[in-house]
Write a structure and sequence with these properties.
Structural class: alpha/beta
Number of domains: 1
CATH architecture: 3-Layer(aba) Sandwich
Number of strands: 9
CATH class: Alpha Beta
CATH topology: Rossmann fold
Helix content: 40-55%
Order of helices and strands: EHEHEHEEEHEHEHHE
CATH superfamily: NAD(P)-binding Rossmann-like Domain
Strand order of the largest sheet: 3-2-1-6-7-8-9
Shape: globular
Oligomer: single chain
Largest sheet: 7 strands, parallel
């Protein structure tokens, strides 16, 4: 295990389960202090407990990233964590937000677009697009004020720019917007010292990749028959892609969209 993030603070949204939890655990394992965020306290505390069990440090903050005040509060929570590179301002220790991963997302669908309730459309846009927009604004404002800048990774999806699936048109539109937004923001702010990239997972070992009524064993059999790799990605593999883009190993990688999909979109 390397320690690429020792002494750094990372913020991960949607960290109560799935990919977000795996990302938070991976950052902690490599030395980062992690702020885990989401709408529900209980799963966040479970993530914190898992991090602490492996000797890491984490803080759970409940937040709805579709609200600007919550996005800003998350950044403040990260900056207020104890940090090795402290400066004193009236006796108050100030840290930095070194890494942010915007993973929070929702899926509403399963039916043709013409039958999708308007409420489900607005819900997906609010969390998947507006939530990323507001989070980016708060994170970039903090990072560009820091001498060392920072790195941001937004979690999108192969649904959207890379592929389509029945019953997922609205979700795909939202995730395509995340990728486009990220690339534009990357160009706007790389000279500010803020490096922004995207990871687009395909089918991953989370409940979202299960078809209605499908078991995990049936999913595995379907993957063996349909995916070039013969299996779906693990959440740890997606997390590894996120950590690479957030690390100094990817110092010259700007505005890329890294697909992790077992070869599905080849």
């Amino acid at each position: 295990m390397t320690h690429r993030f020792t002494g750094r603070t990372a913020l991960v949204t949607g960290a109560g389960s799935g990919i977000g939890r795996a990302v938070a655990l991976a950052f902690a394992a490599e030395g980062a202090r992690v702020v885990v965020a989401g709408r529900r306290r209980e799963p966040l505390e479970e993530t914190v407990a898992l991090i602490e069990e492996q000797g890491g440090k984490a803080l759970a903050v409940t937040a709805d990233v579709s609200q600007a005040a919550d996005a800003e509060a998350l950044v403040r929570a990260a900056v207020e964590l104890p940090h090795p590179r402290l400066r004193s301002d009236g006796g108050t220790p100030i840290g930095s937000l070194d890494v942010a991963v915007n993973n929070a997302g929702v899926f509403r669908g399963g039916q043709p677009l013409a039958d999708l309730p308007e409420e489900d459309w607005h819900t997906q846009l609010a969390t998947n697009v507006t939530g990323v927009f507001l989070a980016l604004q708060a994170q970039i404002r903090q990072m560009r004020a820091q001498p060392a800048g920072g790195a941001i990774v937004n979690v999108s999806s192969t649904f959207g720019l890379h592929t389509a699936s029945p019953g997922a048109a609205a979700y795909a539109a939202a995730k395509a917007a995340v990728t486009a937004l990220s690339r534009g923001a990357a160009l706007d702010h790389i000279r500010d010292g803020v490096r922004i990239n995207v990871v687009s997972p395909g089918a991953t070992e989370t409940p979202m990749s299960l078809r209605p009524g499908e078991t995990e064993a049936e999913r595995a059999e379907r993957a063996r028959a349909t995916l070039p790799l013969g299996r779906i990605a693990t959440t740890r593999e997606v997390a590894a892609a996120v950590l690479y883009l957030a690390s100094d190993d990817a110092a010259s990688v700007v505005g890329t969209d890294l697909v992790v999909d077992s070869g599905a979109t080849l």
